[in-house]
Amino acid sequence: MPPDLWPAVRQIYAEGIATGNATFETELPDWHKWDSSHRKDCRLVAVETGNKELPVSFAKIKVLGWAALSSASTRHVYRGVAEVSVYVASAARGKGIGKELLEALILESELNGIWTLQAGIFPENKASVALHRSCGFREIGIRRKIGALGNTWRDVLLLERRSSKVGW
Asked: By the 8 A CB rule, do 21 and 125 touch?
């Protein structure tokens, strides 16, 4: 995910925020804040180029979705545990983009020594829960009223996926 694509990635993030079921965030971060809170090695974008010729200039790329990892902890013992973010543009939802991104992110995470991926998802976000389950995530539990979004306390379903290749 090159910084040149940040405006499109940020717009997709804004669409997720607007649903009220994707994140506790209510304001869009700037590039520096987003960049500093995500791992540098596991950032992916799904793009549509309009043609098969490569390389394509960034001006001709349409970003359909993105996926990235955040470290779960700064403690060394948890260095192989990361939290998943997957966002798909509203116009591209229901086309398998999220699954392609999450499957690619799983592969990328294993190449970078990640043994456990975790996801915190609002239970109402049934599409995201189904997506993660289809990629091998299992439900760990539910964190009841873990945080407030506006004036509403929200539950978060905790899911995880343990690598069969890393950390054994």
From this structure: yes
**Model confidence, pTM:** 0.91
Distance CA 47, CA 44 (A): 10
Q: How many CA atoms lie within 13 A of 128 on its CB side?
A: 23
Averaged over 49-55, what is the pLDDT?
63
Q: What fold does the segment set 3-162 form as a domain?
A: Aminopeptidase (3.40.630)
> What percent of the chain lies above the pLDDT cut of 90?
88
* Domain boundaries defined on the chain: 3-162
Q: Which residues, 6 or more positions from 5, have their beta carbon under 8 angstroms from its beta carbon?
A: 45, 47, 58, 61, 63
Q: How confident is the model at residue 35 (pLDDT cuts 50, 70, 90)?
A: very high
The answer to whether the beta carbons of residues 135 and 161 sit under 8 Å apart is yes
Contact 162, 116 (CB under 8 A): yes
Cα–Cα nearest to 90, from 158, 22, 137 = 22
pLDDT average, residue stretch 7-36? 95
